[in-house]
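So, can you check this one?
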Amino acid sequence: MPELPEVETVRRGLQPVMEGARILTAEVRRADLRFPFPERFAERLAGRTVTSLGRRSKYLLADLDGDDVVIMHLGMSGSFRIAQAPTGGEVVGDFHHERSRDAAHDHVVLSLSSGATVTYNDPRRFGFMLMTPRASLADHPLMAKLGVEPTGNDLSAEHLAAAFRGKAAPLKAALLDQSIVAGLGNIYVCEALHRAGLSPQRAAGTLVTKGGDPTVRLERLVPVIREVIAEAIAAGGSSLRDHAQPSGELGYFQHSFHVYDREGEACRRCGDAHTVRRIVQSGRSTFYCAACQR
């Protein structure tokens, strides 16, 4: 599933053609994806202008004139394709696992005043599009319990200390808790923990003092999280193989992996003396070095 840097990369690919453009026509070709489409969705989109295209956690947010917001999630297999006549169109953020171009899975098609056609394709239909008033967005069930963004100043050692205090849960699981930090996913938690020298298996509460203050190790983790996310966004993400933005950017962060998907390979900190291990935590693969992550 796309993580925050991949979603941000898709947002940046869509922004030039969608932001400020009026939706001339909207075609919705089925009744639902993961959830039913909003009532009269196509009718409510047609004629509206996309005033801004944002992101919260792993959700894309399209603000429309009239103060509605479309909440979009890519799910497991969703992708957007931009077509500029007379070309056939290219996928925005072509993922490591190839995204579908099969028209049978084109579920939403938007014709824009920018001259582009934006198509949402989703073979497995785990993605979704919802609509809510901007004034109530923060209270929407998908948004209300989201934690701080890992890219902003709200992510601090003090915030994590308050969330981790007394927690026996593994550190990796605590960081994947979207109510604590919104948007962190499996790849980037593995990478951040390796750079910070912290074991994914240690209890989250061990990074908090008896008085509730962050330990030195927790202080070190926060800037590392920001660093990993920033590098991944700058590289165009790591689930991305080819990138279809007009600039031709490619997703290169996978070449910077220290541990993720490197089971059996030498640890980039320890050298050949120690190799990357893979374990399963809560049904997800965790990659780490047992020698340098404590």
Confidence is low (pLDDT under 50) at residues 240-253. The first helix runs from residue 4 to 18. The domain at 157-288 is CATH 1.10.8.50 (Helicase, Ruva Protein; domain 3).
